[in-house]
Amino acid sequence: MKPSILILRTLLFLTCSVIILYSCNFTERTKEYEGLLPPPVDPQTIQDQDDMTWDDYKSIPGRNWADPSLVPEREFRMALVAIDFPDQPFVITQPKGSDLFGNPQIDPVDREDVPGFYSDFWLKPSEVNHGQTINGYWMEQSRGKFGITALDPFGPYRMPENMWQYGLNEYGQREYTPDGSVARSRMERDVDSLWKADVGDLKSNYDAILRVYAGYDETGVWQEFGEMKFMKDEIPAEWGNPDTTKPRWVPTRYVEWTSWKAGQMQWGLSSIRQGENSGTITHELGHYAFRTGDNANNPYVEPYRRVGSGTWDMMDRGCFNGPGGPHMRWVVPPTMGATMPAGLMLRNRMKNGFIEEDQVFYLSREGLAESGLAVADITCRAVEPLPGTWAGLIVRLDGEEPHDRTPIEDPAVNPLSQGLNPYDFYSMEVIQRIGYDSFCPDNGVLLAKNKDREGRNGGPNQFNCFNWVIDAHPEDINMVDFVRPDGTKIMRTIADYRQLNDALFHAGLNSGSEFEYVDVHNRLHFYVLDLRKNEDGIICYTVAVRSLDGQGPHERGLEISEVGKAAKGKEKGIYKLRIKNTGSAGMMREGIHKQDVKENTDADVYRLKLSVDGEGWETGLLHEIVCIRNGEEAIIPVYYGRQNENAGKALITLKAISESDPEVSSEYTITVE
Q: Given a cut of 90, is residue 184 above it in pLDDT?
């Protein structure tokens, strides 16, 4: 985009106040462009997780939530206990790049300094952690309401048993021990006995104990050092069972096998226990501190079940966000995939008490039929709402039972089925790739169905699901996940969380995404109307929602008139047309919605349609829908161009139709020759 275009577009957005944005003046963004139309007003620009680097991080303007001097309203104090094993030293103590997995990535740390190293890594901004801490994550999500104020180091301690004696206890692995013994069910009892013998009762002084163990979380190595690195019958001896009479592979969680060396590692748990490569401590704290469950599916087992919220929420696979994506979670120290988890979706921020109730625009589905269409401005979730805007929009699915009237689809037949259990409300929020959302794959509007209470979604391979993102592109994203050593390409399954990389809705035409969503069964129509940025680059979207069952007590009306030609050339030009909302607001009873919605219902949305009577001409618009407040107007640029030299006179007609009342419309015809 040329600088003049960017400046003009920015100035136009900045001159639209929050209120005037409802009737945003869709004047031409530029006169300097190739082809008939200028660039889309809100292009979908997806960046895959695999392609992300630390250069993709964009800080929040004027904020550094990782600053240790900031004191949260709720202080969460943790102890960090570091333990290693007779057969597994701390990875971070080994020479750089020397262990079997290719770690550590930095110069070695002395064993006695390991607890302090990891305490500093997770709590103090530094070059090693790129200035990012677990405290910074929670402070950003909660806006200072919740933070980690202590992570005191203890140890190191040597465990009484080998790593495999704790790690080979899951998913049918117990018979794969080198000596035929039965692996321990959990390691926590042995860990805790060590620090109790050393320092007494830690639990009385801390809210949680983080147990960092030498080696790896199996979740970060089972695939990368299993099927991605080896063929099952070609695993080298150094990756296999020390008992050479036994297979060099072991069963693992999601697929049939992984290398024995990867499989002997443990899975991180909300107890909280984490290996040296684990970047999901923030995720486990979500379980531990807020009693929020996983929202994650099993993406590898058939029949496939679509993910719930995927990359857009930390309690789903958004906990894997970070440079390099999900296949870079084996790095020690953990500075790649999973080190920059996604923010929390609106439902979860509300549940955790991170958002004030008056920051959210609440609507009733039944109330929308009585009040008519409602419009709202929403600021991106990474920051506090800009003045006059909201943190998000909610539409409660109220009225007669069942509240969620979506027909049940058998999950065994349709992998995109939302499941057998109903949802309670819709939410709309805005994603901008700043702060911890820097490693989300796109900017745009996130639309989702949500449950008040957690619960399984029923059917085969069911999973706990409380956020269900509405995918603007439900079709298969059709991307390769990895390539086997024999050259076989393995595609991302339809259940892979990255299928939702293109899920966001965008404003305008030709964005590459959708600007509206209709739920016929729940009688709701959602719109993404336009966006703007303030002087700091913070994104705000204007959205709307209406009931399919009522347009409210308002008088609907509009008229179109000509403003004039904005530009004319031999091959193309722009006509400016004025659409005026001639309607008026009707009287509404109080209490239809949770909040006073008079200002938000004093507008209408119009659908624009262009037609051409004449050969050899083409036309275009930047938007198919426009929202205008009662009594106000919007300027619509109509782009036209001659396709060939033989094109004669043509009549170009713009028709605008009220979305609230399709019987109300107006049209205007332009003559070009």
A: no
CATH for 3-34+551-672 is 2.60.40.2310
Phi/psi of residue 13, nearest 5 degrees:
-65, -40
Query: Which ranges of 504-608 does DSSP label H, i.e. alpha helix?
Result: 598-601
Which value, to the nearest 10 degrees, does the dihedral of the CA atoms of residues 298, 299, 305, 310 take?
90
> 342 Cβ partners below 8 Å, 6+ apart?
311, 312, 313, 314, 318, 319, 321, 436, 437, 439, 440
∠ CA 337-250-160, rounded to 5°: 80
DSSP H/E element including 190? helix 188-199
- pTM (2 d.p.): 0.93
- The per-residue pLDDT for 10 is 36
pLDDT exceeds 50 at position 368: yes
Q: For the residues 229-257, what does the mean pLDDT come to?
A: 95
Q: Which residues are 469's β-sheet partners?
A: 448
Expressed in percent and rounded to 5, the helix, strand and coil fractions of the chain are 20, 25, 55
Domain borders along the chain are: 3-34+551-672, 65-220+262-291, 348-547
Bridge partner residues of 81 (DSSP) = 154, 211
218: Cβ contacts below 8 Å, ≥ 6 apart: 167, 170, 252, 253, 258, 262, 263, 265, 266, 267, 275
Model confidence pLDDT, tens digit, residues 611-644: 999 888 899 999 999 999 999 999 999 999 888 8
Distance of CA 578 to the CA centre of its chain: 38
Q: Quick: pLDDT tens for 14-25.
A: 333 333 344 433
